[in-house]
Amino acid sequence: MNTAHRKQLAGTQLDYYDTREAVEAIQPGAYATLPYTSRVLAEQLVRRCDPAALTDSLKQLINRQRTLDFPWYPARVVCHDILGQTALVDLAGLRDAIADQGGDPAKVNPVVPTQLIVDHSLAVEAPGFDPDAFEKNRAIEDRRNEDRFHFIEWCKTAFDNVDVIPAGNGIMHQINLEKMSPVIQNRDGVAYPDTCVGTDSHTPHVDALGVIAIGVGGLEAETVMLGLPSMMRLPDIVGVKIVGERQPGITATDIALAMTEFLRNEKVVSAYLEFFGPGAATLSIGDRATLSNMTPEYGASAGMFYIDEQTIDYLKLTGREPEQVALVEQYAKETGLWADDLAAAEYERVLEFDLSTVVRNMAGPSNPHRRLPTSALNERGIAGDEMLAAAQAEEAEGLMPDGAVIIAAITSCTNTSNPRNVVAAGLVAKKANELGLIRKPWVKSSFAPGSKVAKLYLEEAGLLPELEKLGFGIVAYACTTCNGMSGALDPVIEKEVVDRDLYATAVLSGNRNFDGRIHPHAKQAFLASPPLVVAYAIAGTVRFDIEKDVLGNDQNGNPVTLKDIWPSDEEIDALVAKSVKPEQFNQIYIPMFDLGDIEQAESPLYDWREMSTYIRRPPYWEGALAGERTMKGMRPLAVLGDNITTDHLSPSNAIQASSAAGEYCAKMGLPEEDFNSYATHRGDHLTAQRATFANPKLLNEMCRDENGEVKQGSLARIEPEGTESRMWEAIETYMERKQPLIIVAGADYGQGSSRDWAAKGVRLAGVETIVAEGFERIHRTNLVGMGVLPVEFKAGDTRETYGIDGTETFDVVGDISPRCDLTLIINRANGETVEVPVTCRLDTAAEVNVYNAGGVLQRFAKDFLASA
User: Fold this and answer.
1) Distance CA 538, CA 546 (A)
2) Phi, psi torsion values for 580, nearest 5 degrees
3) 243 burial level (CB within 10 Å; 0-12, 13-18, 19+)
4) Which residues form the Aconitase A/isopropylmalate dehydratase small subunit swivel domain (predicted)?
5) Which of 137, 290, 352, 461 is the most buried if burial means most Cβ atoms within 10 Å?
6) What is the DSSP string of 614-650?
7) What are residue 515's phi and psi, to 5 degrees?
């Protein structure tokens, strides 16, 4: 830490860094105009930046310049078990690589505190109407993931600065919000703002507390773990002024889905948003967390709220120590991070959002930013009298109806962090039970809160039995359906869905509904608030106009509609106030974080299990990945349209027996019932690379039917033969030929999750370059971390401009520097050559350095050995 501007924080034994003084010394009066984000970034520069670079770095913030890279030093790294495990597999492999070259592997450790929470590996095999669902699902999780959990336990004892919260305890973001984040750090006698990066795109969940928390890929997280700064330029900081008051009956989910559509339309991709205004002040931390959680869905990097009385009330409610709560308030007021002190903050762009315009909303199908007002179900062609009549006729014949809701899941930290949403669902269930309504028998219902505290306050409120009666018993404390881990359907139901090619759907209180993500047999999925999920389990089909159609009849034969079971705001608020208590949080979290004494591992090197399909020594320092990237003669692996998600690139849901990964798992001796999900196998590159473009909803424009229409499926065309094949067979063929590859795509390439395997998979396949109209932030960073060059068409140019059909080969020429101009050379099959100007999307000098080394792991190994 630096010494300049270090002072004692009044009334404490702690020091702090007077960032206001440092900024004002450069430009008097400037600090009052800085946004919240800039103030936090400035503090860590004053505290840790090289003094010789400090003034120039601070001027970037003061003058809103973006001409200089400056370092960001996050205070923590938080990981879930999928990307966190793969990051630690990479570090274990790095230890092996360094040992092979004569270095000391024991010196490779995270130097930044790293918290790993096991929350992504549980599948809902036993549904919420099974009274033993929780125990059954946990037993299956332990059996399937024994290899993974063995490795994670070894990491806890082999690496310094790694804490592990084992399976069955909750979702990383909810635990981060309710316990892990102190909001203000107290380390080595110094108080400073908590900041973190997390290996999940929804890490901004804790932005609701005023904590800059950014979702990154596993590769960028590894960089931070190893103590290297994350180099950045001043991001676009956009103010979002929230005004108005919400209408009665409107949930935080409704607001979040409306905000997601609004912000997507306003094009805030990669921006840091700061929510403020009279409307923001009325939102509880639970409401704010629902909004902040959806940050990746509206394309931003952060969704910040200021520290205010709501923050303090929440810290007290969740059982934080009184001394810590006092520190947060005092520090925020002393350093200008308190909401009242940001009245003069200036933004280059301010948007206004009116809470009073929000109606009851869903989202879908296919995209979380496709807002679907429940009042518009008919006009959007989702519901309608004729469709409902046909569906009910099928039901009368003993068949499942068109639009059948085969999955109804109250899931995800997005909504279960908010007691108001959960209590509202419980009250809907209570009223439905009182009126004699029941769940349709084909609906696989489940309730998976992100924290064990939810069970305690629902029991206190008397609502857990009501949810259980309707089939929403607690199946897990994990991500489950939101992460595509919805588990198998009842075989009878699955057979009917497949045999009839039924339009089956899922309704969930999650944050993503991309096609193919939630369940292979759910053709489309819709996002909804927890109480609406309960209502759809009763309705049983999305052909139902949920606002007006009759859900059933009460004991007297009277028709019951949604308004009859929807609780008032007063009912919800009174029950939340009565039932949610600080002692519940202490009861759960004090023993959870008592990690006890840990014995050091016997060896700093992991004993890899040869037959494991879950954990394998990574290959990033050997073979083709250690060779030169020529960027010449590249053949297209795929030509793709807009909005390609990381679910297209490397799906996370259940492995099907007929897939390339399924065939490999069977060959390795795994029984089909234990194939598990793609996500859980990402510690083994031999399994994980078979997930590359394995999404059955993929549309590769190189594969067309006799009418010229693009075929759907995990398909490719091997060139120059022109032979169509499954994607994996094409990848194998090109790997055998050592053929360099390119991917050509449209806008917003790499939307969605932060999974690094979306970049690792294509790199292992031999992809050297991706040219697209635009990239989502996290995926672009992951590509750089794997040594894949992202280049961008100039505005107005697309793959269609140049008639790219996949028969071409491509070269990229030019000297690489940050955001330089390069030339993409298209070599057509007829001998014609076209030169296309493109932009290099290595955005900083640090990224060029990583790319030139072959990737972040190769860069670290070289630097480590050079300094040894």
Assistant:
1) 10
2) -95, 120
3) middle
4) 664-795
5) 290
6) SB----TTSGGGGS-----SBEEEEE--S--BHHHHS
7) -55, 135
**Single-letter residue type at 574:** A
Q: CA-CA distance, 665 to 663, in Å (whole number)?
A: 6
Tell me how far CA of residue 189 lies from CA of 21, 43, 179, 802, 804, in angstroms.
Answer: 20, 16, 21, 60, 60
Q: What does the pLDDT look like over 235-259, one tens digit per residue? A: 999 999 999 999 999 999 999 999 9
Residues 95, 604: contact at Cβ < 8 Å? Answer: yes
Taking the C-alpha atoms of residue 653 and residue 803, their distance in angstroms, rounded to an integer, is 34
pLDDT tens for 780-821 read 999 999 999 999 999 999 999 999 999 999 999 999 999 999
Q: Are 81 and 199 in contact (CB under 8 A)?
A: no
Pairing verdict, β 195-198 and 190-193: unpaired
Length of the chain: 868
Quote the DSSP letter at residue 726: E
Closest to 207 in 3D by CA, of 269, 280, 267, 266: 280
Query: Dihedral angle at the C-alpha atoms of 750, 751, 753, 758, nearest 10 degrees?
Result: -10
CA distances from 688 to 282, 512, 684, 829 (A): 45, 22, 6, 33
Phi and psi at 78, nearest 5°, equal: -115, 140
Q: How far is CA 500 from CA 77, 558, 713, in A?
A: 47, 34, 20
CB burial readout 312-340, b (16+ within 10 A) else e = bebbebbbbeeeebebbbbbbebbbbbbe
What is residue 867's predicted lDDT score, i.e. its pLDDT?
Answer: 80
Q: Return all residues near 23 (Cβ < 8 A) that are at least 6 apart.
A: 30, 31, 34, 42, 58, 61, 62
Token pair, residue 698, equals 């993929």
Which pair of structure tokens corresponds to residue 314? 């929440």
Supply φ then ψ for residue 92, to 5 degrees: -65, -40
| Integer angstrom CA distances of residue 800 from 631, 640, 641, 700, 701 | 22, 11, 10, 14, 11
pLDDT of residue 223: 87
Model confidence pLDDT, tens digit, residues 189-226: 999 999 999 999 899 999 999 999 999 888 888 889 98
Which residue in 816, 859, 867 sits closest to 839, CA to CA?
816
Greater model confidence, 844 or 76: 76
pLDDT confidence of residue 624: 66
By 3-state DSSP, what share of the chain in percent is helix, strand and coil, each rounded to 5? 40, 20, 40
Position of tokens 């070289």?
862
Give dist(CA 775, CA 768) in Å, integer: 16
DSSP assignment letter at 749? B
- Amino acid found at 147: D
| Coil, helix or strand at residue 125 | coil
Determine the pLDDT at residue 863. 84
CA atoms lying within 13 Å on the CB side of residue 761: 31
Tokens of 728: 């994996």
Packing angle between helix 453-461 and helix 419-434, nearest 10 degrees? Answer: 40
Instruction: Give yes or no for residue 275 having a pLDDT over 90.
Output: yes
Average pLDDT over residues 348-364: 98
CA distance 406 to 541: 8
SS3 598: coil
Q: How far is CA 60 from the centre of its chain?
A: 29
Q: Which helix (H) or strand (E) holds 86?
A: helix 81-100
